[in-house]
Design a protein that fits this description.
The structure is a homodimer of 353-residue chains. In chain A, 43% of the residues lie in helices and 15% in strands. Chain A is of the alpha/beta class. Chain A binds a DNA duplex (16 and 16 nucleotides) through α3 and α5.
DNA sequence: GTGAAAGCGCTAACAA
DNA sequence: TTGTTAGCGCTTTCAC
């Protein structure tokens, strides 16, 4: 009965297991495990035998078994807003490459900037028992998901989100993160615009409520203006996914004392603004200068080339993986990694006429 | 002894399991499993009790256990050449979204167009026991990885790769795939160039050995030329990752009987060509027309806007997920899904002077 | 150096 | 309707 049942199973077109290999090699399946894990506790001859049997049977270890037993998955969860945005896509690429080099696989989820989706996605990843998480959240200072991860002691690293050394209300919020210094970078870009001779510079930004980065970049804008003794203008807040900016641009550029330069909180916005400004009959840069933030490749293909802050996207991903693996490894978190940005000066920003 | 050990375990800061929930709710853990899986075989009152206990304990099902037991992971493996290329990134985005809607998660791997990496990555995915694979390979007609998947009966769907209904040597090669009709699309774009008045049209393509798509698109080019009674020119083959095309362009455009239009096998190439042509002093489109293939968004932001074939990237991803889930479900494969492309006519291609 | 056996968290017969 | 039990494939003591 039992043996018949077993035979039927063995005959079935199922994958060979460690037991099959053991039987075929004439050893116990514990030995097979030892060989496969290269513990070095096995006699070379035996090892050879096992390997040969494994090859012959087309054995492929079943990680579900291993993972369950060892309660580690060698999997990193990655949760990003969207891959439509090349900055995230490229960062994911470098995360994946770095993870692969460290023998880890990637479980991916996107959230479309939706806090509800962040909750669902993180939960799904945790059910899979990922060893750690790399993620970008809408607002890292107020994120239920991050609170949860902290409470449960799940290792994670933020990318692009930038946590100051202490949170609000004097509570030091030490959330591991990898980013550029958003405020400084914005400040430098705006200073560049000022050095070109611009006085009325307006910032066009993603909604501050939806992006902590936008807020930091706006701070940098304000600081640059103040340092130069200029009056910061009210920012124009755009939903992150708005693609047509003509109405807003017309409002902004329609009157006499219009801004002569527009500092955009992302290249996406900057490119849309350049296109729409032109459609409205404004030349870039002679009627209005435009600068962006991100450093997406295509900015260089535009004419005029887009002046922008270049984030080291690939570095950010790679660094995040390194940091996360350290945290998983139990090492101590030493503080945010601020990577170097650069200014890429194109001709989309020039001296005002 | 045993109880002490158990207590120690219970006290440890480990996650609650189904057993903990059972104990806390005063039922057997089989009942908990039934409740969690909504089998509907449980008395509502009991169910309530269990759910309450689960909530109180912060229970989160461990999918490793479930997966091992049921030998299904609810995970789809995705293997793509690179996410730097927006076409793949956007397709991945739509794959992820579709998978999420169907309660599946994504395991991601990239290969950088390297057949060796394809082998390694697919093996890693199979060790994880993904339920199926969505992938783009360098050459779908000659792919050891696909041969392996076929041999082992692992469900998969190709994206962007386009399999003709029969393979070489009369062996029908029925590999599930979702793509546009590359040849037809290329033919139509070249026909468009011809209709503008171009006679000497040169194709600039990724290396044919590295891309079955390039080959198909070149076929379309040839066909369009022949239909119009024109002589196809020798194509210019570029490594897929070459970014500077000036040397080649100078060769191509340097002589009297130079082509008046360049049909590029991807937008990446087309955009580089536009930039480099301009750097070399050729105006686009008055000196030379340029057309691309892919339909990346940024093509519309260029000036002149890039004329291109638009692939329905998101549709391709969504369709691939649908198809893969069907195959996993044991349904029969009914043939390649050819999705509709469109021509996006910009001003990068115009009538020759 | 190798084998026997326990058990990771879960599902699904089979009993009751 | 619920409980008991046997594994899924693997790692890792503990013996020998």
């Amino acid at each position: 009965m039992t043996s018949a049942h077993k035979a039927a199973q063995t005959n079935a077109n199922r994958r060979a297991t460690i037991k099959d290999v053991a039987e075929s090699a004439g050893v116990s399946f514990a030995t097979v495990s030892r060989v496969l894990n290269e513990t070095g506790l096995v006699k070379p001859a035996t090892s050879e035998l096992v390997l040969e049997a494994a090859r012959a049977l087309g054995f492929r270890p079943n990680l579900m078994g291993r993972n369950l037993r060892s309660s580690r998955t060698q999997t990193l969860g990655v949760m990003l807003p969207t891959l439509i945005h090349p900055v995230f896509a490229e960062c994911l690429q470098s995360i994946e490459t770095a993870a692969r080099l460290s023998q880890h696989t990637i479980a991916l989820s996107t959230t479309d900037y939706d806090p509800l989706a962040e909750e669902t996605a993180s939960e799904a990843l945790l059910r899979q028992r990922v060893d750690g998480l790399i993620l970008t959240v809408a607002d890292a200072a107020a994120s239920p998901v991050l609170d949860k991860l902290d409470a449960e002691g799940v290792p994670y690293v933020l990318v692009f989100n930038q946590m100051s050394r202490q949170g609000k209300k004097k509570q030091p919020l030490r959330r591991p993160c990898v980013s550029v210094d958003n405020q400084l970078a914005a400040q430098q870009m705006v200073a560049h615009l000022i050095s070109l001779g611009h006085h009325r510079i307006c910032m066009i930004a993603g909604r501050f409520g939806q992006s902590d980065r936008s807020r930091l970049r706006f701070n940098g804008y304000k600081q640059a203006m103040q340092v130069a003794g200029l009056e910061p203008l009210a920012p124009l807040e755009l939903p992150f996914n708005q693609t047509d900016t003509r109405r807003e641009l017309l409002d902004l550029l329609g009157n006499r004392s219009r801004p002569t330069a527009l500092f955009c909180s992302s290249d996406q916005i900057a490119m849309a603004v350049m296109r729409d400004a032109r459609l409205l009959g404004f030349d870039v840069p002679s009627d209005v200068s435009v600068a962006g933030f991100d450093g997406v490749r295509v900015g260089q293909l535009l004419s005029p080339e887009l002046s922008t802050v270049v984030q080291p996207t690939a570095d950010i991903g790679r660094t995040a993986v390194d940091l996360l693996l350290q945290l998983i490894n139990g090492e101590q978190y030493l503080g945010p990694a601020l990577l170097h940005h650069t200014l890429r000066i194109g001709s989309s920003a020039a001296s005002p006429q």
